[in-house]
Design a protein that fits this description.
single chain; 264 residues
Length: 264
């Protein structure tokens, strides 16, 4: 009965506190509602219709702050679909004041409208709980191997590997994660132009500024990780010729000092 599937397991960080605040904050209620609605959307449905692909094997299960998304591993471009969907989810989360933590792996899984279980589910939950740690979605090596077996469109195996590795970043601890910083900005520039970038960086700043008030060591460590990546992103964009039109706005954005080490 098991299928070989690509599975992502995502946690919306700080969800419980945000839900408590929604009782008197209708704007936050709407933001969370809209974000969860986006999770249930198959980003590639319209592309599939246009290209006359077979129906997607996309499945999603959501319970409170936990999301599980999966594709059949042998489906054409299954890994590309998964990682691009997660990149856009992270961008949307940032724009709504939310941070995501999660993991992506592959393995034996049953996932349909009413069932979700299997060894792959156990593995991805463990990765999210014990390895991801920071507001990032990590991706294991087996997933990249699956991507090369089932490339997107007319991509060859080498092209697919090159493209996906550009979408990912190797973190300080050696794990790949989906780069919603630089690659998030690349996606936004492609869709809307560079004019939208300063606002995206401001969205990240708002999350950092809010979390800086916390005395919780775990939140401080996550915030420092976010600061490091934001600072690197800001430096890269300031030096990017494509961002000349928003250079003045980028120069007005602040850089953060890291007051504590990231170590967990």
């Amino acid at each position: 009965m098991y299928e070989e599937r690509i599975i992502a397991y995502i946690d919306i960080l700080g969800f419980t506190k945000k839900i408590e605040n929604t009782v008197e904050n209708l704007e936050m209620t709407q933001k969370i509602y809209d974000f969860i609605s986006l999770v249930h959307k198959d980003f590639f449905k319209e592309i599939d219709k246009k290209e006359k692909f077979l129906d997607s094997s996309y499945e999603v299960t959501q319970s409170s702050d936990c999301l599980a998304i999966s594709y059949v591993a042998s489906e054409k471009a299954s890994v590309f679909r998964m990682l691009m969907s997660l990149l856009y989810l992270q961008i949307d989360a940032i724009q709504n004041g939310l941070l995501l933590r999660g993991a992506v792996t592959c393995g034996k899984l049953i996932h349909d409208k009413t069932h979700l279980f299997g060894p792959a589910m156990n593995a991805v939950v463990d990765m999210e709980k014990n390895i991801s740690i920071f507001p990032r979605i990590i991706v294991n090596k087996e997933v990249l191997d699956k991507a090369i077996e089932n490339p997107f469109g007319s991509n060859g195996r080498e092209d697919e590997e090159k493209y996906l590795k550009e979408l990912l970043k190797t973190d300080f601890d050696g794990f790949y994660y989906i780069d919603y910083f630089l690659q998030g900005c690349e996606a936004l520039m492609e869709d809307y132009g560079c004019e939208c970038l300063p606002e995206y960086l401001k969205d990240i700043c708002r999350i950092i500024d809010k979390n800086e008030q916390s005395l919780d060591i775990k939140i401080i460590q996550k915030t420092n990780w976010l600061k490091n990546n934001y600072n690197m992103l800001l430096t890269n964009l300031k030096n990017d010729e494509r961002c000349k039109d928003v250079e003045k706005e980028l120069k007005l954005l602040k850089e953060y000092k890291i007051v504590k080490e990231i170590k967990m």
